[in-house]
Amino acid sequence: MTIHALEEMAEDNLDIFDVEHAIFNGRLVRSRWDGRGRVCYTFYGTAADEMSAVGIVGRFTESRRSLIITVYKMDETKS
Prior knowledge:
Elements: H1 3-11, H2 16-25, E1 27-33, E2 39-46, E3 53-60, E4 66-74
Antiparallel strand pairs: 1-2, 2-3, 3-4
């Protein structure tokens, strides 16, 4: 996880369990190339409470590890 993702999680009162739940029970909504030739993935899901909508953006590193770039709580107008 990037420092940015950790800061955004804290700001939105989310924790790692919310992020895991959103990834494992959510859906991939977009994949796109970033400015450096890497593919970034956006997931939408729900937090562990199964009520709060969560967005997650991540990518794979050169060593094939997943890197979560940012996490955010979505309000109903964005989902």
